[in-house]
Design brief:
56% of the residues lie in helices and 11% in strands. By secondary structure, the protein is mainly α. It has two domains: 40 residues, no CATH class; 105 residues, no CATH class. It has a three-stranded antiparallel β-sheet with strand order 1-3-2, covered by helices on one side. Helix 1 crosses helix 2, helix 3 packs antiparallel against helix 5 and helix 4 packs across helix 5. It is globular and about 60 Å long.
Length: 166
């Protein structure tokens, strides 16, 4: 089954999206959507060499996402406050180096997504020769706070979620 339908949930999602876009459940639309739902995942299978991520602790993932949502809203309000009040001259934009213990590729990708969706922060790169994250912060006041927040609030839960022996 996996040979012809490597990602069944993606295929179901593609079929559903196709039918929504077509605004029809006519036989031709369902058939074309089903063909696309099978062909597209087969065509892009090689882009996912590691397979599906295994979430080892879903409750930790839910807590992490809830905490990230709160942080995103808080940061959005802070950045808006700075821009709307014209405090842009007082902004202290800086890069922060954060040593990472997380090595799992899916965990690093999730950390990157969480950081980049938070207004005022940008994942710049993993510095060559080290395993340190270069993080750009829009308005830096306390470098150690950022290091502790990334390490404790984001990295530790991601290690629990994705790595076998945290």
């Amino acid at each position: 089954m996996r040979r012809w339908l490597p990602y069944p949930m993606v295929s179901a999602f593609l079929l559903g999206i196709w039918l929504l876009l077509a605004q029809s459940v006519a036989a031709g639309d369902v058939l074309l959507g089903a063909v696309l739902a099978v062909i597209i995942p087969l065509a892009v299978r090689s882009l996912q060499p590691l397979g599906y991520p295994v979430v080892r602790k879903p409750a930790v993932l839910v807590r992490l996402l809830a905490m990230a949502l709160v942080e995103i809203v808080r940061s959005c309000l802070n950045v808006t406050w700075i821009i709307m009040l014209g405090r842009r001259r007082d902004v202290n934009a800086q890069f922060v180096r954060i040593p990472l213990d997380l090595r799992h590729p899916f965990g690093l990708a999730a950390l990157s997504c969480l950081i980049n969706t938070t207004p005022g922060t940008v994942w710049a790169e993993i510095l060559p020769g080290t395993h340190e994250l270069a993080l750009h912060v829009f308005d830096l006041h306390d470098e150690q706070w950022w290091i502790d927040t990334i390490k404790n609030a984001y990295e530790k839960p991601l290690i629990e979620i994705f790595e076998e022996n945290p």
